[in-house]
Amino acid sequence: MLLIVCPHCGPRDQVEYAYGGDAKVRRPADPAAATDAEWSAYLNERDNPAGEHDEHWQHAMGCRRWIGVRRNTLTHEVVSTWALQPAKTA
Amino acid sequence: MKYSFFSLSRNAVNYHRDWPLAWRSPAPKPHYDVVIIGGGGHGLATAYYLAKEHGITNVAVLEKGWIGGGNTGRNTTIVRSNYYLTENARFYEHSLKLWEGLSQDLNFNVMFTQRGVLNLAHTLADLENQARRGNAMRLNGIDALALNRQEVASMVPALDLSPTARYPILGGLLQPRGGTARHDAVAWGYARGADARGVDIIQDCEVTGIRRDGNRVLGVETSQGFIGVGKVGVAVAGHSSVVAGMAGLRLPIESHVLQAMVTEPVKPMLDTVVTSDAVFCYVSQSDRGELVIGGDIDGYNSYAQRGNLPVLEHVVGAAVALFPAISRLRMMRLWGGIMDMSMDGSPIIAKTALDNFYVNCGWCYGGFKATPGSGWCFAHTIAQDRPHEINAPFTLDRYTLGRAIDERGAGPVPWMH
Q1: Nearest CA to B91 among B357, B346, B362, B343?
Q2: Is the ipTM above a cut-off of 0.90?
Q3: Residue span of the structural domain in which B282 resides
Q4: Which 3 state secondary structure label does DSSP give B222?
Q5: Does A45 touch chain B (CB under 8 A)?
């Protein structure tokens, strides 16, 4: 069982989260100007490392915010988590 | 030595002390015409068909562990070709036809039993979808039978067919020629067949690097030294991205863990394979009486060969809801395998941007049933330096060209296929 620390809510069980995949994928800044190869690389190609992997998770059953998670794909250890958006101030 | 009634009888007289080893364990030669990385079912089948169909026998299969110790030994042994899309239907049907003659071809009993594969329909939409898929299968020359509720009930009485069932059953789609095979025997049979034709099977030999000169691969660095190559084929399933990365290639692949399990053995209660796409659970009974149960991937990148409890709980819950009688069985074993999930849920058997480097990957959940067809097509692709028409659609560049073969219609989200 993964225990993922939501930067907004604290440590929560993996069942509260939805997986969002590789966090290093960058959408081309100007999609209309991207070549087919660049667009395909964005959509389809992945590093897929055996080891530490930066990924997006959504705290779907909690604050519903997307967070960043560094996780080891060989051991399932959650190395660190971080907020993707700055916390709202009142 | 050919296995036959005569050889069995003769060795029985000698108390089975004189059987020769089924394959050699040679030291690697400095150079091979073809090196296959990965000694699972697909790699061994590729070597076998390279030798048998194309006469290329100066071949090595490099395996970092022991043959068949990866996903070949970690699946639920289901064989079927009940696909909707024509590309998939043609490929998997070709594979199924090879399965039907495989034990005779290999002179090794792979225990392929065509006990049928039954997909359950739980809703009217399921029934309509199955009618569509069944018709597509028949148009492609594949056997398919739509069953109503009574026919499912008489075929699999252990299912919960009551109107108040957690997952009501309205009917099903049966592929009678589908079934199961003995996974270890497939690896061993192909290994023995390839070895007999001169292929070197080198176990405990991990590839640690790939030496390139421009667009050509010169050889592979391994834990047993450098091996020069004419051509390299990669058939390493979950580790495809890692090995392709050694050659500087990025693949449209993510690795995910899929769990499967077996219960304690019971008397015969299930003589077919029952699957449910809606609850994502598939159940069959092994020759030893264990119920073999598999389900969905855990849903995040993993190379760990073990999964987590939430998905396990879901799969077991679904199996118990479908078969209430198994609720008190104990689990004997639970394991995880690393799936090479492709971006459209379909495999890749193709040339790459490098001149003499070929990949066989993206098998998602479906690698075991594809073993003979995969090896057959991959051998053709390597030997002829071009794909056979059966695997021609399964290229690497189909994603860029917009020709994805997306059976489920999920898009480039590997954990959804």
Answers
A1: B346
A2: yes
A3: 115-178+255-342
A4: strand
A5: yes
Residues present in chain B in total: 417
Lowest average pLDDT, out of A37-41, B120-124, B170-174, goes to: A37-41
Q: Does any domain span residue B231?
A: yes
Task: Choose the final residue of a domain: B318, B342, B366.
Answer: B342
Task: Extract the runs of DSSP E, i.e. beta strands, from B247-290.
Answer: 253-263, 273-276, 281-285
The closest alpha carbon to B34, from B75, B62, B70, B53, belongs to: B62
What is the 8-class DSSP label of residue B285?
E
Do B261 and B334 fall within a single domain? Answer: yes
Please judge whether A48 and B343 are an interchain contact, meaning their C-beta atoms are less than 8 angstroms apart. no
Under 8 Å CB-to-CB from B389, ≥6 apart: which residues?
Answer: none
Contact B239 A55 (CB under 8 A): no
Q: Do B399 and A40 touch (CB under 8 A)?
A: yes
B29 CB neighbour count, 10 Å cutoff: 12
For residues B221 and B316, membership in a common domain is answered with: no
What is the pTM for the complete model shown?
A: 0.95
Instruction: Tell me whether residue B323 is in a domain.
Output: yes
Assign A89 a pLDDT band (cuts: 50, 70, 90). low
